[in-house]
Write a structure and sequence with these properties.
The complex is a heterodimer of chains A (about 240) and B (about 250). Chain A is of the alpha+beta class and about 240 residues long. Helices cover about 15% and strands about 35% of the residues of chain A. Chain A is built from three helices and 15 strands. With about 250 residues, chain B is α/β, with parallel strands linked by helices. The chains are: A alpha+beta (about 240), B alpha/beta (about 250).
Chain lengths: ~240, ~250
């Protein structure tokens, strides 16, 4: 086998470095556009394809990931006076216990173009009438991973027994205020180098933890979210 | 020394985050809670400095000693210029939380156990017999607040100093000490947190200081950077624990 020339190695390294710098935001935009064009548009929540949710037991949680960016069968629902929005319908667990429904969406787009899908959870009765829905006040921005997540928790208690369905749609864009991203405060972890290279490690730390400009977190029209349905049982202190 | 202990506890808290569990407040399930006893944290002792990702921390024990000496010196410098303002994080924060909880519809009694620990109460058994805890016995739930000294944190030796408040809040039922709510909050600097997943509240860019000289030049502005976090935190805490509509 022919040994690689130094120029070839340099070229490969250069390509790899550049590939590493590219943020996935363009890909997200492209994938969103593709889903926009292929989505089936329906007139009402009732016409959406339901996904049944069942709790495994009175103590175990059920987790459901929805990847709207890679969905083969995206659906949108028409809404009065606005563009159709991506929507997903779930049949709620019919259970004797109270349970929590937690939705979490990750900030995507890397550190350069942080953006998040801001969901709205809408609860419906068996006639598809809206009983309640989340608002921005229910969501919290949390530190997690590179750029953070937003999450909200809603409980389904005996007084909500009439609720049969959950629809997840995009929070109306006009209501999504741009938020100050906190990722400016964080930096990549220090490079790990063998012990004799302490000086190089120190130089890397200083260079990699310099100030980053503040960036705004943008709202995306589609994204990836996780739903967790957890039976509610308060633990005693020390348990 | 106390500041170093506080910083150590911050690190310890973050490193042990794998075992931390959140509990959102199920307000409909606990709609009978009307009266809350707010258990006051250990009083804050001053202001501190922390520089993350410091190169000295990569130089073993000698580096750690040098780092501690530098942080102590910087913390003392900051504290010296802030002391004349006579501002306490804990008293301001507890008053703000009590006000917000009252506004949301609870009756709130404040309980000062004069405790020495920075962490949440592990076991209330001893507390129950203390005369200082007596007002809490008639409450429906006990809200425990843990915080540490306010800090200015730089992400690295050449980064700006950013304000930082860390807060953990837990509500337990007075009847049987079931955990009704537990959450962690960071205002300002976002420490890498693993599975802790604290609620993050940003500080304004006006309160980023390029170096120690800038940080200590105008103590009122430096204080404002920290103090602005108090009402933000209190509001979020009260929103999370708001009672069901009656």
């Amino acid at each position: 086998m022919k040994p690689l020339h130094i120029k070839t190695i340099t070229l490969i390294c250069g390509v790899l470095l550049l590939a590493g710098c590219q943020t996935p935001s363009a890909t997200i935009a492209e994938r969103t556009a593709l889903r926009e064009s292929t989505a089936q548009i329906v007139d009402s929540f009732r016409a959406l394809t339901p996904t049944a949710i069942a709790l495994p037991s009175e103590t175990e949680a059920h987790e459901q990931r929805v990847d709207m960016l890679n969905s083969a069968t995206p659906e949108k629902v028409r809404q009065a006076g606005a563009e159709p929005v991506f929507a997903r319908l779930f049949t709620l667990p019919q259970h004797n216990v109270s349970y929590a429904v937690k939705i979490t969406t990750s900030v995507l787009g890397g550190r350069e173009n942080p953006a998040v899908y801001y969901p709205r959870m809408i609860f419906l009765d068996e006639s598809f009438n809206v009983t309640r829905h989340t608002t921005q006040r229910d969501f919290r921005f949390r530190g997690s991973g590179v750029a953070g997540v937003i999450s909200a928790t809603v409980f389904v208690n005996p007084q909500n027994r009439n609720e049969r369905y959950l629809v997840v749609v995009e929070e109306p864009p006009k209501d999504v205020a741009e938020q100050l991203s906190l990722i400016a405060g964080q930096a990549p972890p220090p490079m790990v180098l063998p012990l004799p290279l302490k000086l190089a490690e120190m130089m890397w730390v200083v260079a990699s933890t310099s100030n980053e400009p503040e960036r705004k977190l943008r709202a995306m029209r589609a994204g990836v979210y996780d739903l967790t349905f957890t039976p509610y049982k308060a633990r005693k202190l020390g348990e | 020394m106390k500041k170093l202990i506080a910083l150590f506890l911050v690190a310890l808290t973050l490193s042990g985050c794998a075992a931390i569990e959140k509990q959102a407040f199920n307000r409909e399930a606990h709609s009978t809670i009307r009266k809350i006893a707010l258990i006051e944290p250990r009083p804050s002792t001053g202001f501190g400095i922390s520089v993350q990702n410091h190169p000295a921390m990569h130089l073993g024990l000698i580096g750690a000693v040098a780092y501690s000496a530098e942080m102590t010196s910087k913390s003392n410098s900051l504290d010296a210029v802030m002391k004349p303002l006579n501002w306490s994080l804990t008293s301001t924060l507890i008053s703000a939380i009590a006000d917000e909880l009252t506004k949301s519809g609870y009756e709130v009694v404040r309980v000062d156990m004069k405790r020495d620990s920075l962490t949440l109460v592990k076991d209330y058994t001893e507390y129950k017999t203390s005369p200082a805890f007596a007002p809490a016995l008639s409450a429906d739930a006990w809200v425990d607040v843990a915080t540490r000294d306010p800090l200015y944190v730089a992400n690295g030796p050449t980064s700006d100093y950013v304000p930082s408040i860390g807060l953990t809040v837990r509500m337990v039922s007075a009847k049987d000490q079931t955990i009704l709510y537990r959450e962690d909050f960071f205002y300002g600097y976002a420490f890498p947190t693993g599975r802790l997943q604290p609620v993050l509240l940003p500080s304004e860019s006006a309160f980023r200081f390029a170096n120690m000289d800038a940080l200590t030049a105008d103590p009122k502005k430096t204080l404002e950077g920290i103090a602005k976090g108090v009402p933000l935190l209190a509001k979020k805490v009260a929103e999370d624990m708001a009672p069901a509509r009656r």
